[in-house]
Hints:
Elements: E1 4-15, E2 18-25, E3 38-45, E4 48-55, E5 67-71, H1 77-84, E6 91-94, E7 110-116, H2 120-128, E8 135-142, H3 151-159, E9 164-169, H4 180-186, E10 195-199, H5 202-214, E11 222-225, E12 244-250, E13 253-259, H6 265-271, E14 289-294, E15 297-299, H7 307-311, E16 314-316, E17 320-322, E18 326-330
Parallel strand pairs: 7-8, 7-10, 8-9, 10-11, 12-18
Antiparallel strand pairs: 1-2, 1-6, 2-5, 3-4, 3-6, 12-13, 14-16, 14-18, 15-17
Helix pairs in contact: 4-5
Amino acid sequence: MTTIDLVVVAIRPEATEMVTVVLRRRDGEALEYKAGQFLTFLFSFGGRGLRRSYSFSSTPGVDALPSITVKRVPNGEVSRMLIGRLRVGDVLQSLPPAGKFLLEERAGGTVVFLAAGSGMVPVFSLIKGAMAGLRIVLITQNRDEPSIPFREELRRMADAGRLEWISLLSGVAPVARLNNGLLQEMLADIRGDEHFYLCGPVGFMRMAVFTLRLLGVSDEQIRRENFTVEYVPPAPVLADTTPKKVVVRAGNQRYDFTAAWPATILQAALDRGIALPYSCKGGVCSTCVAKCVKGRVKMSKNEVLTEKDLEAGLVLTCVGYAETDVELELGDIE
């Protein structure tokens, strides 16, 4: 498993109980990543290994150094540590950048971003990297002004005409909370060629997707970035549950093992001490994505791969079960 050591260069307040952490690679190399992606950090607390993913708030080609933005989670031991005890010069260990919450290259048209709370972090990264010629509409939901991430930068972008920003605040009068009816009103002039990028709490995302589908927006026009796993899906029913041979190629390395239902491909590898990459284990983040080049993999859940991804053979090993002997490839997967 490839890991990266990152040195904390700066820490700055971003919003209520939220900080931005600026990073650089300890080996001096540039960190290659894409706007909208995230890093999965590896921690050890009391002998327990923990993984937490945090989105980039920086944008390649715009910001000199990469940065993540962290919001304090009630009773969250990692977020409390990062906000309360992290210092400049500290070293964090992470997996390579991952994630498929990426802005598609388009010559023109409208892109609508819907973000609530810390869901603004990857959206901010995407907006800064958006190509000229796009009409950008941003709808945000926060509690109050101090809780809005990147509010000064967003105001400057809106004042300069780079985006149309609708800011809703639920904790101050007049109270404004995004719901199905209000979102339908805001999108009353929808033409059908818009693309939508959503990030926020589970309820917010569910409401937004439901409303967009009512408006005739196809799933291919909607991209979601999930921060939480609602549930870990049970193993699907397979016609053949006998153990299957699995080959995983990662660069010059090759791993051979067997996977037997009801274990996922990822779990089968981990049980044998093979450190394949993962983060959520719930089919929502794509850290574990691989390309199936031989055989068949059945997934019990998929909240991140598009139809185009599936047609290209991409699978999620954390919710993937070998239906036959399979061969998978890890690496730079688009």
